UniProtKB/TrEMBL annotation:
Protein name listed in UniProt: DNA excision repair protein ERCC-8
Role of this protein: Substrate-recognition component of the CSA complex, a DCX (DDB1-CUL4-X-box) E3 ubiquitin-protein ligase complex, involved in transcription-coupled nucleotide excision repair (TC-NER), a process during which RNA polymerase II-blocking lesions are rapidly removed from the transcribed strand of active genes. Following recruitment to lesion-stalled RNA polymerase II (Pol II), the CSA complex mediates ubiquitination of Pol II subunit POLR2A/RPB1 at 'Lys-1268', a critical TC-NER checkpoint, governing RNA Pol II stability and initiating DNA damage excision by TFIIH recruitment.
InterPro entries in the cross-refs: Rad28/ERCC8/Ckn1/ATCSA-1 (IPR042238), WD40/YVTN_repeat-like_dom_sf (IPR015943), WD40_PAC1 (IPR020472), WD40_repeat_CS (IPR019775), WD40_repeat_dom_sf (IPR036322), WD40_rpt (IPR001680)
UniProt KW keywords: Chromosome, DNA damage, DNA repair, Nucleus, Phosphoprotein, Repeat, Ubl conjugation pathway, WD repeat
């Protein structure tokens, strides 16, 4: 580090090289924080987490008990030890609380004035954060497993909703309608993710073992169906044109949007080129995934190499995204890990599990 500072002072080093080196060091040295924790709110498991994109400060959580909480993660106590308190909650006594388990929570991509939640009670709710009241409620025929909003869209406000039906519904926040649908899967859709690069590119994963890429401007059919064999399996088996040999219940784009990671109940993680749809054939080994829900995993930002954090039973596995090398394993939960989210500003990781705990992982150096 001193060498980096000396080279930077002499002008012989790119200023971003020092930032990249420190970001990488902090990302690779994560361990369970001894001084930071998050107040336990959920009586059952923590199913979903999201960190606000505006300040990377407010952590949103949704639980199996139907409760939603917003935590302030900034330490304003003036001491090293701190507990992130809930600044507001939609508890069981709230008249608009979800009846059943909250499966996904997401901040509005541009500010903290709105957030969204979807639930086993077949609803998607759009919340006014300040009033803590639903501004809009969308009803569906089946259980809602996941939903997503584009982080870069400026010309649309669409929410992609994955349900137990084979149809992906696009809900428009501007009009309040949910008439736009995407047909292509043959079983329940478990997960949906928008590209951080293209505001019209959507990826969906399903119980039919497929991952479909869509251009939502022309929704008559998908752009492509990702094939784990890259078209080289010339037989009529069921594995042809499938992304996994099990249900696909997790998706995550790399930060620059050029690649997509998919996670399946075949205990495999796969990396895809989003331009060509080809399987890059990176081997991450076996990663436990027996979840019947959507699994939320994440990728670091700014480190070299990029790191993917994947729930693996009661731990979180860390892999080099493009090399597949196992880097580290984060152990701290007492039960299945359901979700994790990375803070790109502080290189901290937050994880939620079936043990109802939300844990904070920080650099040990």
């Amino acid at each position: 580090m001193l060498n980096f500072l000396s080279c930077r002072e002499n002008g012989t080093l790119d200023p971003l090289a020092l930032v990249r080196a420190e970001t990488t060091r902090r990302t690779f040295s994560l361990e369970l924080s001894k001084e930071q924790d998050v107040k336990r709110i959920h009586a059952s498991g923590a199913n979903s987490l999201d960190l606000d994109p505006a300040e990377s400060r407010y952590l949103l959580s949704g639980g199996a008990d139907g409760v939603i909480a917003v935590y302030d993660t900034h330490n304003l106590s003036g001491t090293p030890s701190s507990t992130a308190e809930a600044v507001c909650t939609v508890g069981r006594s709230h008249r608009h609380v979800h009846k059943y388990s909250v499966e996904t929570v997401r901040w509005y991509p541009h500010d903290t004035g709105l957030f969204t939640s979807s639930s086993m009670d077949k609803t998607l709710k759009v919340w006014d954060t300040n009033a803590l009241l639903p501004a809009e409620v969308f009803q569906f025929e089946g259980t809602v497993y996941s939903h997503a909003m584009s982080p870069v869209a400026k010309k649309h406000c669409l929410i992609a909703v994955a349900t137990m039906t084979s149809i992906v519904t696009l809900c428009d926040l501007k009009s309040g309608s949910s008439t736009h649908i995407l047909k292509g899967h043959r079983a329940a859709v478990k997960c949906a993710r928008w590209s951080p690069r293209n505001p019209y590119l959507l990826a969906t994963g399903s119980q039919d073992n497929k991952v479909l890429l869509w251009d939502v401007r022309s929704a008559k059919s998908s752009l492509m169906s990702l094939d784990q064999h890259n078209g080289e399996l010339a037989t009529s088996t069921a594995a042809v044109n499938t992304a996994h040999n099990g249900h696909v219940n997790g998706l995550c784009f790399t930060p620059e949007g050029l690649h997509l990671l998919s996670f399946g109940t075949d205990h495999r993680l796969r990396l895809w080129d989003t331009a060509t749809g080809r399987n890059t054939l990176v081997n991450y080994g076996k990663i436990c995934n027996d979840s019947k829900k959507s699994v939320q995993f994440t990728v670091s930002r700014g480190s070299s190499p990029d790191v993917v954090f994947v729930p693996d039973d009661s731990s979180i596995a860390m892999f080099d995204v493009f090399g597949g090398t196992s880097l580290h394993r984060l152990v701290g939960h007492y039960n299945y890990v359901q979700c994790c989210v990375f803070n790109p500003d502080t290189q901290e990781l937050y994880s939620g599990g079936s043990d109802s705990n939300i844990l904070v992982w920080v650099s040990d150096l």
